[in-house]
Design a protein that fits this description.
Elements: H1 18-25, H2 33-45, H3 49-69, E1 75-79, H4 89-96, E2 101-106, H5 114-118, H6 123-127, E3 130-133, H7 142-146, E4 160-163
Parallel strand pairs: 1-2, 1-4, 2-3
Helix pairs in contact: 1-2, 3-4
Length: about 170
């Protein structure tokens, strides 16, 4: 996508996506002209939109850093993960503990971690987790259905749920 030049299969680049608008606000490259135009239109109505996106991402990083460093959590379930951008959950958690595990869940496979966990330089091995394409209201056992055990979460250990509204 880099700057909106090449569309992945099945994506209508003429229809804006809130995930790609958010990506653009954070300086990412996974967005298209329609996303940027829509984000600018939102900014005209809500001038604080850019600041909100940046501060929201900073909060996510602080929360994950605290939970990994201070509380000692090593497992994270990121629900409604959105597109990968700078400072993803696994990157922040693994800066603290390289053994930390993250499972990315979204109802859109392109946001459920395929790009978090597979498409970015073999990231699946580094995340020690897996992408799961499920809607949060329709799946009781993401892990078992995704088959990520044991590479993903250890169901005998506690984990942290990172809701999509945190970003």
């Amino acid at each position: 996508m880099a700057g909106g030049t090449t569309a992945p299969f099945g994506i209508d680049t003429t229809v804006p996506s809130t995930a790609r608008m958010y990506d653009w606000r954070l300086g990412g490259h996974d967005n298209f002209a329609a996303d940027r135009a829509a984000a600018l239109a939102v900014s005209e109505a809500a001038t604080e939109a850019q600041l909100m996106a940046v501060e929201n991402r900073k909060f996510l990083r602080r929360a994950v850093r605290y939970l990994a460093a201070e509380a000692g959590n090593t497992q994270f379930l990121d629900i409604g993960t959105g597109l990968p951008t700078q400072g993803n959950v696994h990157q922040v958690a693994q800066d603290i503990d390289p053994a930390a595990r993250v499972v990315y869940v979204d109802n859109d496979y392109c946001k459920s971690g395929c790009t978090h966990a597979q498409g970015r330089s073999g990231c699946l091995r580094r995340t020690r987790g897996a992408p799961v394409k499920k809607h949060v209201t329709r799946c009781k056992r993401w892990g078992r259905q995704a088959g990520y055990e044991p590479a993903g979460a250890d169901t005998a250990e506690p984990g942290i749920v990172v809701p999509g509204w945190m970003r």
